[in-house]
Automatic annotation (TrEMBL):
The active site is at K97 (proton donor). Belongs to the OMP decarboxylase family. Type 2 subfamily. Pathway: Pyrimidine metabolism; UMP biosynthesis via de novo pathway; UMP from orotate: step 2/2. PANTHER family: OROTIDINE 5'-PHOSPHATE DECARBOXYLASE (PTHR43375). Coiled coil: none annotated. This is Orotidine 5'-phosphate decarboxylase. It catalyses: orotidine 5'-phosphate + H(+) = UMP + CO2. Pfam families: OMPdecase. InterPro entries: Aldolase_TIM, OMPdecase_AS, OMPdecase_type-2, OMPdeCOase_dom, RibuloseP-bd_barrel.
Length: 281
């Protein structure tokens, strides 16, 4: 029997705390760690992060773009990282933000969500801005394979409001419509549905202003921006309110800046997890 992603994530958060560590081998971080800006440097970086936090946090989140910028060799490293993360028993969220229509969306779903695909982790980030219905191939495959999705909803980039806060003819914001569609897919599921949202940790009261009921989503809320980007206890409480139990706080630079020493990375992740747990309790 397949255990759905939402149930596996809830158990992982109970066991290890509500933290997801981003694996972002950015050029500046590679340089700071004394690694070359090529696929070999990316591999050393990513596997070092997994050595430090694998089995100790709820999830890791490799950012696909930082692997893809090195071509086929970088994609091969991403495949290795997905497998290595799985071997540590840590949930792997592939942060690829894919979104398209028809057979193309189906192909993306096949690449990142199909059993046996080397790029298929436990969950995938996706974009709904070609219409929520365009995500159906990914939704169908994720749910049938026990995987999860995190749908972009309220992001912290300064341009996001242009689309996410816009209102349709009936006065409902785009973000509220996205959240409602995700909630409908998670209705009645316990302890958490598998269709989550991406909601920035530094968006202030945007959920209230856009009419987004985060608690009603009944799915996980991936919250980038915790730590170095300014998302602390006060920000998390303001953004998520009654939905705090659903939040998986994501920290990348806040943890990665402690590298390359494994013990230092591990300590930074432990601090970040404890701080997130305290803020979300």
């Amino acid at each position: 029997m397949i255990v759905p992603f939402g149930a596996r994530l809830a158990a992982a958060m109970d066991a290890s705390g509500p933290l997801c560590v981003g694996i972002d081998p950015h050029q500046s971080l590679l340089e700071a760690w004394g690694l070359p800006d090529d696929a070999s440097g990316v591999r050393s970086f990513a596997l070092r992060v997994l050595e430090a936090v694998g089995g100790r946090v709820a999830a890791v989140k490799p950012q696909a773009a930082f692997f893809e910028r090195h071509g086929s060799a970088g994609v091969a490293v991403l495949e290795e990282v997905v497998a290595a993360g799985r071997d540590t028993g840590t949930l792997v969220i592939v942060d690829a933000k894919r979104g398209d229509i028809g057979s193309t969306m189906g192909a993306y779903a096949d690449a990142f969500l199909r059993d046996g695909s080397p790029l298929a982790g436990d969950a995938l980030t996706i974009s709904p801005y070609l219409g929520f219905g365009s995500l159906d191939p990914a939704i169908d495959l994720a749910l049938s394979s026990g995987r999860g999705l995190f749908v972009l909803c309220l992001t912290s980039n300064k341009e996001g409001h242009e689309v996410q806060h816009a209102r349709t003819d009936d006065g409902v914001t785009v973000a509220a419509r996205v959240a409602a569609r995700a909630g409908a897919l998670n209705e009645g599921v316990e302890p958490l549905g598998s269709i989550g949202l991406v909601v920035g940790a530094t968006i202030g009261d945007a959920a209230r202003r856009t009419g987004v009921d985060l608690a009603a989503v009944n799915g996980p809320l991936l919250a980038p921006g915790v730590g170095a980007q300014g998302g602390g206890a006060r920000e998390l409480a303001q953004v998520f309110g009654a939905a705090r139990r659903q939040v998986l706080a994501s920290s990348s630079r806040g943890v990665l800046a402690a590298g390359p020493d494994v013990a230092s990375l591990r300590a930074a992740a432990r601090r970040a997890s404890d701080e997130a747990a305290a803020a979300l309790s």
